Amino acid sequence: MSTTTTSNYFPHYDYGTIILNVSAATFTKAQKRWRVAYVAICSFRVLLSLSKQNVTRQKATSIALLHSHLTLDIQPPTSYHDDDHNDIVPNPDLPDLVPKTHSPDLVPKPHSPELVSNHALPDINTKLTEMVKEKDLITLRGFGGVEGVAATLLIDPQHGILGNEDDVRRRRDKFGSNTYYKPPPKGLFYFVVDAFKDTTILILLVCAALSLGFGIKEHGPQEGWYEGGSIFVAVFLVISVAALSNFRQERQFDKLSKISNNIKIDVARDGRRQEISIFDIVVGDVVFLNIGDQIPADGLFLEGHSMQVDESSMTGESDHVEVDRERNPFLFSGSKVADGYARMLVTSVGMNTAWGEMMSSISRDTNERTPLQARLDKLTSSIGKVGLAVAFLVLVVLLIRYFTGHTEDENGQREYNGSDKGINDVLNSVVNIVAAAVTIIVVAIPEGLPLAVTLTLAYSMKRMMADQAMVRKLSACETMGSATIICTDKTGTLTLNQMKVTKFWLGQEEMGEIPCNAITPCILELFRQGVGLNTTGSVYRPASGAVFEFSGSPTEKAILSWAVQELGMDVEQLKQTYSVLHVETFNSEKKRSGVSMRKNADNTIHVHWKGAAEMVLQMCSNYYETCGTIKSLDEGARMQFEKIIQGMAASSLRCIAFAYKQISEAEIEYNDDGRAHQKLNENGLTLLGIVGLKDPCRPEVKRAVEICKSSGVEIKMITGDNVFTAKAIATECGILGPEDTEHKGAVVEGVEFRNYTHEERMKKIDKIRVMARSSPFDKLLMVQCLKQKGEVVAVTGDGTNDAPALKEADIGLSMGIQGTEVAKESSDIVILDDNFNSVVTVLRWGRCVYNNIQKFIQFQLTVNVAALVINFISAVSAGEVPLTAVQLLWVNLIMDTLGALALSTDRPTNELMQRPPVGRTEPLITNVMWRNLLAQALYQIAVLLTLQFKGESIFNVDQKVNDTLIFNTFVLCQVFNEFNARKLEKQNVFKGIHKNKLFLGIVGFTIVLQVVMVEFLKKFADTVNLNGTQWAICIAIAAVSWPIGWIVKFIPVSDKPFLSYLKWAGQAFGRILHPSQLSFSSLGRGCVKR
User: Fold this and answer.
1) Which residues have a Cβ under 8 Å from the Cβ of 526 and sit 6 or more positions away?
2) What's this model's pTM, rounded to 2 decimal places?
3) Angle at Cα 281 formed by Cα 262 and Cα 125, nearest 5°?
4) For the segment 734-776, what is each residue's pLDDT rounded down to a tens digit?
5) H-run or E-run covering 697
6) CA-based nearest residue to 707, from 492, 464, 486, 493
7) Contacts for 937 with CB less than 8 Å, ≥ 6 apart
8) Once rounded to an integer, what is the mean pLDDT over residues 536-546?
C-alpha cells in the first residue's frame, strides 16, 4: 500500500532501523521476537533471490494474483514517498502484467478481450498437468487456489473463455487439442497378408508354383505357364476381393467409432452456456457436469454440490470419490459423475491427461465376434470337415486311377505307363490331382458366411445411422431381430419431451391466468427460491436484451421458463441474495431434490424440496393458502390434494410439488459420518404449491406400437411417473388396450412389483403392460424375470441408474439426447433422437440382418452341396473332375464375395414385421431353407451329371465343349438361384428388386465376367468358345431354377427341425447296431434318476 494511504490509519515507524539499532543487552521478549522475525525474513529473501537466478524466467505473461493483504516493509528505508505503487506479490513463475496503478478499476479483468488478445498464454502446461495427476494441493495453493489457476489461464470462472475462433485457436496451439493419438487403422496390405495365412490358399499357391514350373519345363514359357499361372491369378483375385471387403469394413467401423466417441459437453463461453463436442474443449473451458456425465478432460472443481465421481476406469477402485473445493478439487478425464453436479475448470486435455495416455496405447479390436458369427463359424467348420473328407476321397480315387492306368490324356492314351513315363510328367499329373482336391476344399468351405455377416452388419450399421440409431455393439444388430419384448421409458421416448407448465395450484385453488402480482409476496419469494436455487438448469439472457435462454433437462427448463416469465424470477439476484449451503440432487430412486440456503441479509435458513407431487406431499404437515396463511394439512386436506394430483395425472400431466421449511442453525441435521455432510430436513414441511407439466405423445408412436404388436413383439412401459399419468399416456399410445383395462394386473407400481414373491412375479409378469413409480432396480428385476421366461428383451434407458438394466437386457437401447454417458456406455445401441419410432426401426433392421444372412446361407449351401456331390461322383466313376481348379475358384469368388454383396444389402420391408419373432431357440437353417436349397441342389446335380456323362452325345460336341457347357451352366445356375434366394417363402422373388440397384448391378457384372471368362480368357479358364445355341441351352437349363423355386414353395414343411430327423435316424440306427449298450445305458439312466 502507498505510504499516504497507510498514514491515515497507522503512524510511520522505521521498523528496520529500530530493530537494528536496539542493543541486544536491552532486549525485551517482544523485541527478541521482532529480531528473530527480521533475521528470518531477510534470510528467506536472500534464498529466494538466489533461487530466482537459477530458474529460467517464463516468457509468457499473465496477471499477478491480487489478494487483500497488508505488507510490512522492514528494510531500513532512506525516505518515504507518497506516490509509491500498490504492493503486489506476484507469482514467481508468472511475469507481472498488472499495471501499477492507484485505481483497482483500471486493472484489466482476466476475461477482458484486451488482455487475452494482447498477452500470450503462460507456458505452464506441464506444471498444471502434473499438479492434477499427482493431486498436488501444495502446488495448487502456490497458484493461489482454483481462482489463481483461472486467473493464470486468463479466464473468468463465471463466464469462461472468450470462445471466439482466435481465442480457441491460441489455446489449442498452446496446450494441445482434446484428442489422443490412436494407432493407425489397418491398411489394405494387412488384410492381403492376413488372407495368405489361410492353409488351403497356401497349398493352392504351392500347387500353382509346381504346376507352373512343370508346365514351363514341358511346354516352354509361352504355352507352359497357362495352367499354373491361371491358378495364381485366380487365387490372387479371390484374396484381393476378400481383402478389399475386409478393408472397407474396417474403415466403416472406424468411422462409426469416431462418431460414437463424439460426446456433447455443456460449457460456458463468454458467459453463455452452450453445447460443444468433447473434441473442441480447450484448456480454460468451464464445463458443466451432472450425474452420469463423463468428465471430458483433467481439471479442477470450481463450484458444485454433493459431487462424487467414479474413477474406476482410471484407478480400478469401485468406491466413489468425493470431490470438493478444499480437500480434493481434482477431476480426471474418463471418470464418471456418480452424484451431484459441478462446474469444472479444464487444465489439461488430450495426451496431457492420464486417460489420453491410456487410450492412445489401446487399439480398438474390430474383430468382435457376434453370436451369429460364432454359430456360423461352427457351421463353416462342420461343412469344411465334410469337404475335407470328400476332397481326401477324391484325391485317393484319382491317384489310384492314375497309377493303375485308368486315366487318359488328351490324345486318348493312358497317362501313366509305368517306367515309360518321365518323372516330370508324373509329378505334374500328381500336382494337378492335388490342386483339384484342394480346390474342392476351397469351394466346400463356405468362408463367405462370415464375410456375409460382416458385410450385412457394416451395411446395416451405416443405414441405421441414417435412421437415427447408432450401433455400439455389432451383436445388437442381429439380436434385435429376435426381440420378443421391448421395455420402454415414457418421457422423451413415447412423448415429445417438450415440457410446458399448463396448470398451477396454490393451496387448493387453481391459479389459471392469475398474474403473479396477485400472489402474496412472501409466497412468491419462496417460490422463486425453490425454483431458482433448487435446479440443475440455468438461465441466460444476452446483453442485447433478447429472449431468455434456458438450459437443463426438459422438466427443469419448463419450470425455469414458467418462473421467469410468470413469477418474475431473477436468478442472478437470487444468487446474490442467498448462499446455498447444501444440495441433494435428484435421482430416479428419490424422485425429488432439495437445497438448504442462507439469506445473506439476516442469516435465516430455508430448506426447499421439489419433486414428485405425492412424495413431497407425504413430507408436508402444513400448506399455504392463496391469501398467504398457513393451514395444517389434516386428513381431509391431504385427500383433497391427492385428488388434485390424480386429476392432473389423469390428464397426462407430470405433477411437481414445491415445499419448504425454515430452520435455525441448531436444527441443521448431519449424516452419520459427522458434520462434514449436511442432511436436509424431510419432515414438517409446508406445501407451497403444485405445477402440472404437459408432455404430448409423439404423433407417430401409436402406429409404431401397432406395428410391434402385429409383429409379435410386446411393449411394456416402465416409468417413474405416478399410476394415473402412466395409464393416461399408455392408453394414448396404444400400449394399454380395452382388454387390458379389464385385467387388474395390467398396471402395477414398482413397489408392488418388487414386493411380490419370485413365483408371483413369474406368474403375473406376462399380464403387466405398465409399471409406474418404478425405480431402476424394478426395471432390472423385470428384465431378469422376462429373460428367465425365455424372452429376448430390449430395454430403453437414459439415466445413470439404468445402466444395470441396460447391461442385463439382450439389447440395451440408450437415449442420445437425454441419455447420460454412463447409460450410453452400458447400451448396445444409441437412439439418437430419443424416439420410440426409431426403436421400431432398429427392430426392423435387426430382422432384416437376420433374414439377409439366412438368404445367403441358403444360396451358398446350395452351391456347396452341388459342387461337392458333382466332383465326388465324377471322380469316383469317371476318374476326373468336370470343373478345373481355376473354374472352381471362379465359382468360389462368385458365391462368396459377389453373392454376399448381392444378398446382404437388401433393405427392410414391411413383410418382415408381419412375422413372429424368431426368439432364442429357432435354428439358423430353418426347414424352409432346407427345402429350398435341397431342391435346387438336386436339380443342379442331376443336370450337371447328365451333361458330364451324356453331354457329348446329346449335343454332339467334343469333350472340351462339353466341359465348357458344364462350367457355364453351373455358373449360370448360381446366378439364377440368387434371385430365388431373395425370398425364402414368397413365390414372387422379383418383388421390390428394382429398389436394390446393387443386387442388379452385381448380377449384371457377374454375367459380363462369365462371358469374358468363357469367350476371351480361354487359356486362363480352360474353356472354348460357345456359339449362340450353346449359350441359349446353358441359359435355358439355368432358368429352370426359377419355376422349380416357385413350385417347391408350395410344399408344406414341418415345424420340427430338419436335423432332428437325422439325429433320430442316427439314434435308431445305433439301437439296431448296439442293443446291449442301449439297454445298459438306459438302465444306467434309470439308476441315476432313482
Assistant:
1) 606, 608, 660, 688
2) 0.70
3) 130
4) 999 887 766 678 999 999 999 999 999 999 999 999 999 888 8
5) none
6) 486
7) 861, 862, 865, 866, 869
8) 77
Question: If you average pLDDT over residues 587-611, what whole number do you get?
Answer: 89
Cell digits for 433? 490331382
How do beta strands 669-670 and 747-749 pair?
unpaired
Residue closest to 771 by CA, chosen among 488, 496, 492: 488
Q: Residue 438 and residue 392: Cα distance in Å, rounded?
A: 9
Q: Tell me if 261 sits within 8 A of 253, measured CB to CB.
A: no
Please give the grid coordinates belonging to residue 251: 474403415
CB of 70 closer than 8 Å to CB of 88: no
- The 8-class DSSP code of residue 684 comes to S
Catalytic site includes residue 489: yes
Q: Quick check: 595 and 534 in contact, CB under 8 A?
A: yes
Sequence-ordered alpha helix ranges (H) in 225-368: 226-260, 312-315, 354-360
Residue tagged active-site, from 489, 695, 828, 834: 489
With H, G, I as helix, E, B as strand and everything else as coil, classify residue 766.
coil
User: Does the pLDDT at position 75 exceed 50?
Assistant: no
pLDDT of residue 234: 73
866, 966 Cβ separation under 8 angstroms:
no
Q: How confident is the model at residue 419 (pLDDT cuts 50, 70, 90)?
A: low
Four-point Cα dihedral 816, 821, 826, 831, nearest 10: 0
Please state, in angstroms and rounded to a whole number, the distance separating the CA atoms of residues 490 and 723: 12
User: For 158-226, what is the HEC assignment?
Assistant: CCEECCCHHHHHHHHHHHCCCCCCCCCCCCHHHHHHHHCCCHHHHHHHHHHHHHHHHHHHHHHHHHHCH
217: which residues sit within 8 A by CB, 6+ positions away?
A: 224, 424
Query: Could you give the maximum distance between any two Cα atoms of the chain, in Å?
Result: 140
Relative to beta strand 747-749, strand 770-772 is: parallel
Q: Is the Cβ–Cβ distance between 499 and 555 less than 8 Å?
A: yes
Segment 345-350 shows an average pLDDT of 92
CB proximity list for 124: less than 8 A, separation 6 or greater: 58, 60, 93, 94, 152
Nearest to 817 by CA among 12, 275, 172, 307: 275
255-296 pLDDT, tens digit each: 766 776 778 888 999 888 888 988 899 999 999 998 888 899
Give the span between the Cα atoms of 751 and 693, in whole angstroms: 24
CA atoms within 13 Å, Cβ hemisphere of 798: 23
In the structure grid, which three cell numbers stand for residue 539, read together? Answer: 438461465
Residue corresponding to grid cell 394414448:
732
Sign of CA dihedral 833, 837, 839, 844: negative
Q: What is the grid cell recorded at 245?
A: 471387403
Q: Which three cell numbers stand for residue 776?
A: 431402476
